Amino acid sequence: MATLRGEPVDRPPVSFYELNGLDENPSLDDPFNIYTHASWKPLIELTKAKTDRIVMRGVPFLDSLPDAMEERATVETWMDEAGSLFKRVSLRVGKRTLTSLTRRDRDVNTVWTIDHLLKNVEDLKAFLELPAPEGTGKPDIGGVIQAEAAIGDTGIVMIDTPDALCKAAELFHLADFITIAFSEEGLFRQLLDWFAGRLAAQTEAVAGALPGRLWRIYGPEYASPPYLPPHLFKEYAIRYDTPMVETIQRRGGYARIHCHGRLKKILDLLVETGCSGLDPIEPPPQGDVELSYVRERYGSQLVLFGNLEASDIETLPTDLFREKVNRALLEGTQGEGRGFVLMPSACPYGRELSELALANYRCMIEEVERVYGE
């Protein structure tokens, strides 16, 4: 919290991002729980013992009005012979039936979208015939309060929310999203507005019920270069995220914007939102700016979270990974700046954690302790 406030600290915090030592439960009897594999146990223990834990939580709503999408959707689920879980959603709109299909595999901690709900402009026009969702109900803050009690002074809870762009873009295959967002600007703006009203109300309600917390707003990367040009990033991301940031920070919270990829041409726009933090600030070749560049130009406003690549954790020999850790520590803390959190861009999601990945996670802790002491 001192880092978020821009106060002096004895060392930069260290986060393993999604890994927090609370949600990874090896004893949970679930065929999709990858953390039952013994290879994860040392990393889970390391996370609990040595990291500054950031536990992500979404906030559900009680007694909220159902929206037209929920009321008209039919959901089917089944498992195939390999044990993969499939989910099909069918949404009847006028004379059209829109469908989506997802798959979850037992050894991979993610959900793959095989078939997206909206496939063309005609599907989008049909979807927009649905009445926009209204009302929020009461935010159920119990999950946040329970997580804060569970981790005590070993970390903080971060409220996690998509923006309108994320909600809209996920309805399409990426190629279809890019095509429609680029060529049908007015129509796509209608889709963003369809989601934005309820998101704004929900953000206001949660920020009021849980003031002073760190938030993560995710979704802007869908419109970042090279997918879309900066002027559309401003229209599709900044226009909708700025009011969310203002609402959060008016209630004493800290809004952190999550945006992968190439940031150089859009950094000024991200800063215009007034946000307090930015992640994951990926180095080249995944990104196009060095951490030192961002620190020098924007470090007085932003707490910088990053800038280690998840792919490096899994593939880079530890001696080379150690060099990247030390470079991030140097560039993230040099000169004047609000604060820096050493953090990877994501985490492994396979059932078996490699010895190399474990060694590289340990390396992060070792180097911080070597430079700053235990």
Outline the structure in words:
There is one protein chain. This protein is α/β, with parallel strands linked by helices and 374 residues long. It folds into two domains: 2-65 and 132-372, Alpha-Beta Barrel (TIM Barrel), CATH 3.20.20.210; 68-116, no CATH class. Helix content is 41%, strand content 19%. It has 14 helices and 13 strands. It has helices spanning 2-5, 41-50, 68-72, 121-127, 142-151, 164-169, 174-183, 185-209, 230-250, 267-272, 291-298, 310-315, 318-333, 355-372; strands at 53-57, 61-62, 73-79, 85-93, 96-104, 111-115, 138-139, 155-162, 214-218, 254-258, 277-279, 303-308, 339-344. The protein has a seven-stranded parallel β-sheet. Strands 3-4-5-6 form a four-stranded antiparallel β-sheet. Helix 9 (230-250) links the parallel strand 9 and strand 10 (254-258). Helix 2 (41-50) runs parallel beside helix 14 (355-372), helix 7 (174-183) packs across helix 8 and helix 13 (318-333) crosses helix 14. The longest helix has 25 residues, at 185-209. The chain is globular. The model has no long low-confidence stretch (mean pLDDT 96).
